[in-house]
Amino acid sequence: MENVSINGGEDELYEAFLALHTPALKAAGIPPLYWKTLCYKLTNEVFDAGEVFGIMRVEEDDKDENVHSSSNPAAEVSCKVVVTRESGLQACHPASIYLVDHAWTYRLESARQQLMEIPGLLGRMASLMGLSFHGEAPDPDVVELVLDNMWKFNQTYQLSQGSAEEKVPVWYIMDEFGSQVQHSSQPSCCMAPFFFAPQQIAYSVLWPIQDLENGDEVTRDYAYGEADSLVRKCRLLPWLPADLEGVSDKTPEPTDLYYETILQENKEKLPVEISVHSVPEGTVLKVFSEMKQVLDHLKHPRFQFTEDEDEADILWKYSHIRDYRKLSEERPHVLLNQYPCETILTTKDCLASVARRAGQGEGPRWLPRTFNLQTELPQFIKHYQKRQERGEDNHWICKPWNLARGLDTHITNSLDYIIRQRESTPKVVCKYLEDPVLFDREEVGLVKFDIRYMVLLRSAQPLRLYAYNVFWLRFANRPFSLDRFDDYQKHYTVMNYAEGVQLKQVHYDEFIPMFERQYPQYPWKQVEICVGVIW
């Protein structure tokens, strides 16, 4: 498609397109030169890349040393994308932008099920990845191979609106054309995902960053935009093996700037220093709260609810308090259910870095070894490789910094899988406990479980911390084993948010004798002492 002409009606369509998509266009780095053509092609579903490009099979010996194939490493023949149009491709031409379809779009928790159930999907993915697959019936072994190899082909994007579940990153594999665009440190083109709102569908978009002649190869940078040479080398490890000699697995304390940036992002104003305030015995305290649990269950006669936030002695709020300074200056006696800079403990990256102070850099015994994938990727990879050399278990769990309920959380022993997680939401990676304490559910078997304590921090300095000895229990629904890490009911215990699964509930005072029967060598009082040491 050489030229795109837009009439008056289409001008209005284009203005509407810009109003809806300009932030996404800028975020994707798509030059404004191509926006009008992109609008036309998306609206009219124009897939004309086949008129300009072709896929060429190439022997390994003939490959450019600056270009790396993402094909199956065992294959002797790989493919590359080349310009096939005689006139070539001009980067300055406004029509030089092309849509690339996605062969498979999914969220990770449903990947195995889709490969098993969607007709033709497993065969197509195996063929695209250069894996051997014969027959129509899904082969579990081939499914495992696809799940392992897909990290050399996966791309990702995230929706900016919707519920927490809807914002979980989406992964996709481009079609046979897009998946054969190879990596180069000196790329000839750029590619980016683009979500077209009117159709509620995502495509990949390809455009040249230099003029290309007939026969020139189309390449892209798999670590585009990464300026740090060491991090770039780490990000490219799924395709380009590299030596990390000289890299340490030690994780240094983040700089003050790291925490100051978080403070600025949270827009908190720190309080002024105030004197300790004591409440006379028998005083009835007025409580303002927007939380249903508090309104329903706070019954003690020393507390009285008020709807006037300004007259409250206690603010028990769900929304984030920002202006601590104003409260400390105008109402220093008010008690709050939040404290300044609490994200240091309530987000996983900060919790891990602060907790490491208790273990001289390695972290306390109660916290599995943890790395921040955004800032400590080289250290993590080095640590992973050391464990691999020593023959130690290398299963890890990847968790978003600031999500809960098991959302976007993944367990794997695949280094490629973990490295690619860095491209989605910011995450930490923690050593997965391969030998957890298990609970024998009579109707199920030995399952994982967790214990949730309610803890009240009354003062940070001096430290005054209270724990409620009534605890809550959560159980997995399937027997534990070190396999099928995408089986939510085997490896996770948060069932109260999942649809269509059993929620096992046991009261704490019923659990204790059951636990002591299963583990007579560990009286619960002794366990509680060990738990208390953490605090």
What do you see in this structure?
It is a single chain. The protein has 16 helices and 25 strands. With 535 residues, the protein is of the alpha+beta class. The strands form 8 sheets. A 5-stranded mixed beta sheet has the order 1-3-11-8-2, with no helix packed on it. It has a 4-stranded parallel beta sheet with strand order 13-12-14-15. Strand 12, helix 8 (292-297) and strand 13 (303-305) form a beta-alpha-beta unit. Helix 1 crosses helix 2 (35-44) and helix 3 packs across helix 5 (140-149). The protein is globular and about 90 Å long.
Short description:
The protein is of the alpha+beta class and 535 residues long. It is built from 16 helices and 25 strands. Strand 20 (439-441) and strand 21 form a beta hairpin.
Q: Structural class, from secondary structure content?
A: alpha+beta
Strand order of the largest sheet: 1-3-11-8-2
**Tally of individual helices:** 16
> Mean pLDDT, nearest integer?
90
* Helix content class: 25-40%
Largest sheet: 5 strands, mixed
Q: Please tally the β strands and state the result.
A: 25
Dominant shape: globular
- How far apart are the termini? 67 Å
Gyration radius (Cα, Å) is: 28 Å
SSE blueprint:
Layout: H1 8-28, H2 35-44, E1 53-59, E2 67-68, E3 77-83, E4 98-100, E5 102-106, H3 111-117, H4 121-128, H5 140-149, E6 155-157, E7 170-174, E8 182-184, E9 189-196, E10 201-208, E11 217-220, H6 229-235, H7 256-266, E12 285-289, H8 292-297, E13 303-305, E14 314-316, H9 324-330, E15 335-336, H10 343-346, H11 348-355, E16 370-372, H12 377-390, E17 396-400, E18 410-412, H13 415-421, E19 427-431, E20 439-441, E21 445-447, E22 449-452, E23 455-459, E24 464-467, E25 472-475, H14 488-491, H15 508-518, H16 524-534
Parallel strand pairs: 8-11, 12-13, 12-14, 14-15
Antiparallel strand pairs: 1-3, 2-8, 3-11, 4-10, 5-7, 6-7, 9-10, 16-19, 17-18, 17-19, 20-21, 22-25, 23-24
Helix pairs in contact: 1-2, 3-5
